[in-house]
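Report of the visiting student (M.T.), summer placement. My assignment was to run the structure pipeline on a short list of targets and document each run. The first record concerns Pectinesterase inhibitor domain-containing protein.
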Amino acid sequence: MASPISCLSILIIPLLVTCLFYDVSNADRALLEKVCKKSIDHDFCLSVLLSDPDGLTNILYRLGLVSTYKSFGIISDVNNGEIPNVLKGVTDPNDRSRILDCQTDIDSLYGYMELAYNAAGTQSYQEEATMLASAQKKITECNTRFESPPKHESPISSCTSKITKLINISSVIGVDFVTAVLFNWSTASFGGFVATDYGSSMTNNNLPIQN
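After the run finished, the structure tokens were exported:
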């Protein structure tokens, strides 16, 4: 006959495991919500970050890597799948020329996003912000092409909008990480170091996101 303690353990241990998992999951989801509420498209942000198994994390640094990494696949899908499909239905020579030029612009984003990803990996958030701004500039240049005479609505606006949203997610996370670091510095008493560069001085990967 099993002892009362053994029976109690059988009941309590699964409950403790369930509670622990619930707390961790809630913390992970809370971070995602805080980031995505600051993005320009909350639902798109959640769908992108949750499409990666590493996206469910309560560590802001890791979430930043996920957001930038996911951009590679989405940019590839846009440039090699969505835009060619749009081109099939475009007969206007001006629009076709503009779309092809945009394809070149978007193709150049790989280099910027790779540099942004590497910068995020070393927590060089000033450098990451510069690369993300350069990437967004390329998208803006693409959109501007359709505003020049003869002005037409961009047939690939949904594609460029998607990439803008991607860049925005990474930008939001980068800003929040820097904000969290500055908050910790301001509340710490004599931390014993002086920061001259975000990348070389940020060593705490577990910083919480600030409201």
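Residues 5-24, 192-211 have pLDDT under 50 and may be disordered. The radius of gyration is 22 Å. I thank the supervising group for their guidance throughout the placement.
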